[in-house]
Structure formats: C-alpha cells, structure tokens
Amino acid sequence: MKAFVSAVSAAVLLLLPSGGGSSDRQAADPPCTGQIHANPGFELGTTGWTAGPRVVVFGDATRPAHTGQAYAAFAGLDVTRSDLLRTTVTVPAGCELTVRFWVRTLTTETRRGDYLNVGLAVTGIPPKTRFSLAFDGGSQWRQYAMSTGTATTERTATASFLASETAGNGVTAFDVDDVSFTLS
Ligand SMILES: [Ca+2]
Fold first, then answer.
1. Which CATH number belongs to the domain containing residue 122 in this structure?
2. Is position 16 within any domain?
3. 0.85 exceeded by pTM
4. Cβ pair 101, 176 in contact under 8 A
C-alpha cells in the first residue's frame, strides 16, 4: 500500500508544473483570485484581443468609455455583415472564471434586426451563446456577467462578441468596455 501511494505521488509530481508545489495542499495556494486579462478595458487598443475589421477602439468625449479613455465598438454601418471580437484565457484547475462586461447600444432600430451575441466557450463544454443583445439593450452602459463553473482540470475559456448587422432597417453600434476575467 505504501509503495503504491509513493508511485502515485511520483506520477503526480511529474505532471505538475514546477514551482509552488511544496505545500501539502495545492488549494492552499490561492491561484483562484484576481482579474487575469491584461487589457480588459481596451486602454491598450486591441492588445490581447482578436478583433475583426469592423471593430474599432474609440476614445471620444461625445461617446465616452465606461472607464478610461477607450472601448471597443462594433461600428454601425448599415451593411449586412457580422464581426467578431474575442479573447482566450486560461482557467486553472479548481477555479471558476466569471466574465463581467459592459455594453452600450446606440441604434435607430425599433425591432430586432442587428444583434450582439456574447458567448463563452470553455474546454469540455459545448460553446454557448450566453446573451443575445439587440436594439433594446439601452443607450447607457449596462453590465452583464457569465461564469464557467469549476472543474478539476485546467481549462481555456474564450469569450466572444459577435455582432451581426442587417442593412436597411436601422443602424446599430454596440460598444463594449471593461470585460473583466475574474477567478474565484
Ligand atoms: Ca475602457
């Protein structure tokens, strides 16, 4: 029995990344805290994000950011096309990731035509649209949140913002700011 336990411990040690594993319980280290994205508020432009050509980073006094100077905007062009803004983070084993973000919707639409689908794809879980925002999202900044749940293994999580616009029935710009990725 003792020999078996030792063999298992050795195997586990081989799998663990080096550093920080000296204490008796891994959960004693607190990796499940804090905001982990380097550019949550777009103050560094699109650094850390993959942004389609229609996504622009704005800093405009007449259309201010939620915080700071900049935010990501899906420019309303009244053309039929879609565009994507996304980023991926690593969620350590045992942690839950909560993504909080703010959206402002500036539109001339009066019914649903243009929309912003917000998704969270997590290792081991089929990708899912968590929010489908449209003309009624409001011209003031509003906060939304979505979470991964926990798992025993390290995972990646990709947050995506897919804007889709249809020409002819109104112009919509979706503004996105302060997309925080917080571990707990
Ligand atoms: Ca900002």
1. 2.60.120.260
2. no
3. no
4. yes
